[in-house]
Write a structure and sequence with these properties.
five-stranded parallel β-sheet; about 300 residues; two-stranded antiparallel ribbon; about 50% helix; alpha/beta; 13 helices; 7 strands
């Protein structure tokens, strides 16, 4: 059986031969001395026994690091090698979602899209065209650091994966630390009616309309009143058009079909001019793309 000294020397070599440790020591060559390294072996071992970048789990409860949702980073503090812990990408995403959910209860992210990425869209022929546009959007953000002023208007039959596309784009943007607000339109408009009674309407509308990236899922599935159309949707879309903020929309209707839907109010009236005004805002903030395919929910 190896002696304690032999086991210690073996562990010491494994620690010091670790690529990340070597990189850290090289980067801090002018600050680190032999004594600091010897005293810091336990710390270095703690560091290499964990993921030093986000492991990509779908929930920080499944994180394997010592502190769930935190990644270690080596630092030199007061002539000593120390570990500092920082929130990982997944934890930041979860905190963002919790904060958003406090404001808007109709915000949601279905379980099947929690880990969706744009590359996943390439596995489905019906999603290839939208995947190409989504890829261009993300690529432009990465290259310029600026959000394009136009999002996508994704239309097609029920169940072909339009919501999945929104989730994939939202997750890509989250990895770039850009917040997306995703709302299910029928529930959102119902929630806005209730917000009148508890005096939160203004705050909630402001939260949605000022989102860096807004995603309106299933627009056209709701029963519209003139108030929800003009004072809620109209206000949100006008602000985003004026501020050139990207908006993503999914719908069963194409542009013309949605305009017809918007023109027919809950009370049976037909208001062509007001519907056209809403559509002008949608056309100016989105690029239309059709999605076809079989219903994935059957």
């Amino acid at each position: 059986m190896p002696s304690f000294q032999e086991r210690y020397e073996k562990l010491r070599r494994e620690i010091l031969e670790n690529a990340q440790v070597q990189k850290f020591l090289e980067e801090n060559d002018q600050l680190v001395n032999k004594d600091m390294v010897e005293r810091g072996l336990t710390t270095l071992n703690e560091y290499i026994s964990q993921n030093s970048s986000c492991c990509g789990c779908d929930n920080t409860d499944n994180c394997t690091n010592y502190l769930n949702g935190f990644i270690p980073k080596l630092s030199i503090i007061r002539n000593s090698i120390e570990i500092e812990y920082f929130k990982c990408e997944q934890k930041l995403i979860e905190e963002e979602r919790r904060e958003s959910a406090k404001m808007i209860s109709s915000m949601y992210m279905p379980k099947d899209v929690l880990r969706a990425r744009v590359k996943d869209l390439l596995n489905n022929d019906s999603q290839m065209d939208v995947a190409e546009l989504a890829t261009k959007f993300i690529k432009r953000v990465k290259e310029t650091g600026v959000l394009p002023s136009k999002g996508l208007y994704i239309y097609g039959p029920f169940g072909v994966g339009k919501s999945f596309v929104l989730g994939a784009i939202a997750n890509e943007l989250a990895s770039l630390k850009i917040r997306s607000v995703v709302v299910f339109v029928p529930e959102f408009l119902s929630e806005m009616k209730q917000a009148i009674s508890d005096n939160t309407l203004s705050d909630k509308v402001d939260f949605v309309k000022k989102a860096p990236v807004l995603m309106l899922d299933d627009l056209g599935a709701e029963t519209l009143s003139t108030w929800t159309r003009d004072e809620i949707l109209g206000t949100i879309l006008h602000y985003r058009m004026a501020e050139e903020l990207p908006t993503f929309i999914t719908s069963n209707f194409d542009y013309d079909g949605l305009e017809n839907h918007l023109a027919n109010s809950q009370k049976g009236g037909v208001e062509v001019v007001k519907a056209a005004r809403i559509m002008e805002r949608i056309r100016s903030t989105t690029t239309p793309i059709q999605m076809e395919g079989t219903n994935r929910r059957i």
